[in-house]
Design goal:
single chain; TIM Barrel; 13 helices; Glyco_hydro_5; signal; cellulase activity; GH; Glyco_hydro_5_CS
């Protein structure tokens, strides 16, 4: 009798154990990740990035108040420029990166770290290659360890110049592979070529291949919308092409003005809201050479520029729809919403998929003026931009040679 009861108990325990194993997989997902074309948190909560860009590496003296001001403005995320020591020196150290992550966490912001030295490679003198940028990330991986709930690695800012696109796909896939092999399992963000604006649609057309090359399937695509995206139709067509294919996309930079084609800013905000796509405006403050790109003057949040007022408080602006990440225990947790594709917009997915993307070639060339050399010393012998009102490495949104002609896309 005793043996019979023991056998029954053993059977019941085995059944219970098998149920628990099935109900709770041994390898539960952790950290920010891509799921069904959306960026989600570890708990499955949809995360729609709403934030601003901050030139962290060049304005260290402004750090103490900037993060608090960005949070107070309504952001749930901040995209921070880092130097890898190639074009801009010195490199942002692992300690500096740890400090940036800590400041983001302190102010309840998702931290997007971007390596800036690769900007315009092939056209911009002194720009770093993707391989060199990956070497930097690997060298500071200790500062990134255990931060995958809070940190997104934007592998390289605008990594290729205009129409220098032939190697973007392979180079990007190789960069992702190296980062994964080095143990970095964070969500990765990859920028388009053509100074981030994907003029030849290289990123759009090869995004499925790039995502498939990521062993973690945890890559988000980053488009920058300036003068190239000067009509609502162009904005909608581009964003819709990603959403219809369930490919994760974010507008990592945009503004309300540009010297060669006025960006369709209202459309960027409108369609980002309609499709629940993340956006980050350029720039909080410090782009003195192109002051129309600053949201506030002199890092003073009470001195908003017209662009800042539009971005922060205008229709579909930052304050109207940003929700804090649930990892911080914010309001988004109390109003929990897991993504459902039927929530996307008034039309069906079939209708969206049927929309034919605009052609992938341009009839007219592009124009952007060259950046001012960032290595020029700032007044007093310091590095340009750090703790001064000198331009952020000549950081402009008009980066290519003037003689290329005007883009009307």
């Amino acid at each position: 009798m005793k043996r019979g009861l023991q056998a029954v108990y053993a059977t019941l325990l085995a059944l219970l154990a098998s149920h628990l194993i099935l109900a709770h997989p041994a390898h539960a997902a952790s950290g920010l990740r891509v799921k069904d074309g959306r960026l989600v948190e570890a708990n499955g909560q949809d995360l729609v990035l709403r934030g601003v860009n901050h030139s962290y590496s060049w304005y260290a003296s402004q750090t103490s108040g900037v993060f608090a001001a960005i949070k107070a403005a309504g952001a749930n995320s901040a995209r921070l420029t880092l130097s890898i020591g190639h074009r801009w020196k010195p490199a942002t150290t692992a300690a500096d990166v740890s400090s940036a992550i800590s400041l983001c966490q302190q102010h309840r912001l998702i931290c997007i770290l971007e390596a800036h030295d690769a900007s315009g490679y092939g056209q911009q003198q002194g720009a770093a290659t993707l391989d060199e940028v990956v070497g930097y990330w690997i060298s500071i991986r200790g500062a990134l360890a255990g931060q995958d709930n809070y940190v997104i690695l934007n592998v390289a800012n605008e990594p290729f110049g205009y129409h220098i696109t032939s190697t973007w796909t392979q180079d990007t896939m190789r960069a992702i592979g190296r980062l994964r092999a080095a143990g970095l399992q964070h969500t990765l963000m990859v920028d388009a070529p053509d100074w981030g604006q994907d003029d030849l649609f290289t990123m759009r057309d090869n995004a499925p291949k790039v995502l498939a090359a990521d062993p973690a399937r945890n890559t988000v695509f980053d488009i920058h919308m300036f003068g190239t995206f000067n009509t609502p139709a162009k904005v909608q067509s581009y964003l819709q092409s990603f959403v219809a294919r369930r490919l994760p996309i974010v507008v990592g930079e945009f503004s309300s003005n540009h010297p060669y084609g006025k960006p369709a800013t209202d459309a960027v905000l409108q369609y980002a809201q309609a499709y629940r796509i993340g956006f980050l405006g350029w720039l909080w403050s410090g782009d003195t050479e192109a002051a129309y790109l600053d949201m506030v003057n002199n890092f003073n949040p009470s001195l908003r520029t017209p662009w800042g007022a539009r971005f922060l408080t205008g229709v579909n602006g930052l304050r109207t729809n940003a929700r804090e990440a649930t990892v911080f225990g914010g309001a988004a947790r109390r109003t929990k919403h897991r993504w459902n594709w039927s929530d996307l917009w008034p039309w069906s997915m079939a209708q969206a998929a049927a929309v034919r993307p605009v052609p992938s070639r341009r009839s007219r060339p592009l124009t952007r003026r060259p950046r001012r050399a960032p290595e020029d010393p700032a007044p007093g012998g310091g590095r340009a931009g750090r703790g001064s009102r000198t331009p952020v490495g000549g950081r402009r949104r008009d980066d290519a040679p003037r003689e290329q002609g005007v883009q009307t896309r």
